[in-house]
Specification:
10 helices; binds guanine; six-stranded parallel sheet; three-stranded parallel sheet; alpha/beta; 11 strands
Length: 302
């Protein structure tokens, strides 16, 4: 059996088209568009490329995009003042501070200073709490878990009563996706197990999974024999295992490998996400959705 591929690149296009249409409608009816500010501190090359892609995607869907680049040397107090400025700016619905921040700045303090109603990353403790409560309380699910859930739903995989096993317990992926999948409602209502580096027998848990979500950051961790035949496998791992020359651009690019042994796993799973082109493209897509929703909350449309 060869698994159905769940392609983030395709799902991204569908969602961005839906967002673009909604932005146009809101602009016509209410005369406003969602505003997103991306704050970049320093010149980390990976951060620059993420931020550039966020801005390009925002422009594509019709947002007001503000890129605020600050020097590596900015003080914590000045960065807090900048966040305060955007908290008070009525034209801004989403504030994103690109991580990681330089060592002299307390990341937690910065994230906690963002107005929870503009926290489109979903990292503020208030939004973590809202996610835990679930249902109508949830405003901004964190982007990668939201993308994972969207992929499972759009692939037509039954989640109600499904055994979901999440490998990894990070605050950004493992804990929130586990929490989202156990809530009542569409695309959830599952029985969830979280496994991690302290788990005794990883394989035995994975073998039970109807939906296996792997966010461990260990290339090839999940072996094909750990996969239940027909299972849905979501691989969140993006591990740089080397470099190659791109055929398209002639430039050096990273060779990426997931946490799952993809070639063997696709012969056993019912559906599976590739790396790259799987979960990766969904994160920025869901950031756009959260920013649109932020404006919709403000306008009373949600
Ligand atoms: N750095 C890498 N990924 C992310 C993300 O999703 N949000 C923020 N704010 N910074 C990041």
């Amino acid at each position: 059996m060869t698994a159905k591929l769940i392609l983030g690149t395709e799902i991204r296009e569908a969602i961005l088209e839906e967002i673009t249409a909604e932005v146009k409608q809101i602009k016509e009816k209410h005369g406003v568009v969602p505003g997103l500010v991306t704050i970049l501190v320093g010149e980390n090359p990976a951060s620059i490329s993420y931020v550039t892609l966020k801005i390009q995607t925002g422009h594509r869907v019709g947002f007001k995009e503000v890129q605020d680049s600050q020097p590596e040397t900015i003080s914590e107090a000045d960065l807090l003042a900048l966040i305060d400025k955007y908290n008070k700016d009525d034209s801004i619905n989403g504030i994103l501070v690109q991580l990681p921040l330089p060592k002299h700045i307390d990341e937690k303090k910065i994230l906690n200073a963002i107005d929870p109603d503009k926290d489109v990353d979903g990292f503020h403790p208030v939004n973590v709490g809202r996610l835990m409560i679930g249902g109508a309380e949830v405003k901004f699910p964190p982007c990668t878990p939201a993308g994972i859930q969207e992929m499972i739903v759009r692939a037509g995989v039954e989640t109600k009563g499904a055994e979901v096993v999440v490998v990894g317990r990070s605050n950004i992926v493992g804990k929130p996706i586990a929490n989202m999948m156990l809530q009542k409602g569409k695309g959830a209502n599952s029985t969830v197990t979280i496994v991690h580096t302290g788990t005794k027998d990883l394989a035995s848990h994975c073998k039970r999974a109807d939906i296996l979500i792997v966010a461990a950051g260990v290339p090839g961790l999940v072996k094909p024999e750990w996969i239940k035949p027909g299972a849905c496998v979501i691989d969140v791992g993006v591990n740089r295992v080397g470099e190659k020359i791109s055929e398209k651009t002639g430039k050096k690019i990273a060779i990426l490998r997931g946490d799952v042994d993809f070639d063997a796993a696709k012969e056993i799973a019912g559906s599976i996400t590739p790396v790259p082109g799987g979960v990766g493209p969904m994160t920025i897509t869901m950031l756009m959705k959260n920013t649109l929703n932020s404006l919709k909350f403000k306008l009373g449309l949600m």
